[in-house]
Amino acid sequence: MQIIEQKQAFQHALLSWYAAEKRDLPWRKTDDPYYIWISEVMLQQTRVETVIPYYERFIEKFPTMQDLSNAAEEEILKMWEGLGYYSRVRNLQSGVREVVENYGGTVPATRKEISTLKGVGPYTAGAILSIAYGVPEHAVDGNVMRVLSRILLIEEDIALPRNKKLFEQAVMELICEEDPSSFNQALMELGATICTPNPHCLLCPVREFCIAHEEGKQQQLPIKSKKQKMKHVSLASFAIQNAEGEWLMQKRPSTGLLAGLWEFPMIELQEVPAWEAFEKESGLVLKNITELARFPHVFSHITWDIHAYRAQLTDINTDDSLQFFTKEQVDALPKSKPVLKMIESIDW
After folding, report:
1. Which domain holds residue 92?
2. Which of 5, 21, 40, 281 is catalytic?
């Protein structure tokens, strides 16, 4: 690869740009591996702007690994509320507990050891090792693959897991061993701000090293095969009050989508009216049913098309197993984005 021959010049151009132009982000003000770990987990599949307030609240609530290790699941889910992909925070807590129990509260500083922790994949391991410990290790995410596919003219499908090795090897060839932290973050920053899906090549600090730009192929890269078709499911969700004005909530199963979060009762829509299907399935009888809103909720592989309703429970229902909560109690429960959207549309 011709870029390898100009490695030092490439490193200098990239690192000089990063030093001058990097965004002021809270996790860039620390080399604490625990805080770096939290930020990297939060940033997976989530925009930087969204993450910042969550990160700041999370480290304030759980300033040490011992604090997070001791926290109840509902407590950590509440702090993660609205970020989505809740398995991330469960895995984070499990991994932190392993560090506390097996490594005396010190995050391992080798790829072999850190990779054994729950939820720590190759990217997260490399990010923690390079940013927190200054170890020259690759940290390859989608941004980095996009950048390197253009700079090095790698015309392999980045959606295929086997091809990620090409990019990991390329990083290890190019990485600045004196400052791997800044190097890896600079590649990520370049992909996030300039070498975006629609690249801003005129602003790029390493344009002169980019083979794709030289050959006019930057718009064609990276090559990425399409995901399988998104599945759509239509659901009806009911915000139901009892005679005392309390709200009926139920907890989702401990595994699967939105595991362990609280929600208003929900059913899959059928050919009959939503309220009729709900009454038949639940055994409850509703009155004063009004539609609140309709909105989609998108997961990685499925979209929920949600029809949200508000209703009251008739006085003849006396099922003691139902769980009702006051508004203040509902506020305190960890809830998913669909529930938060429904709550926004309720005239309390």
Report:
1. 2-220
2. 40
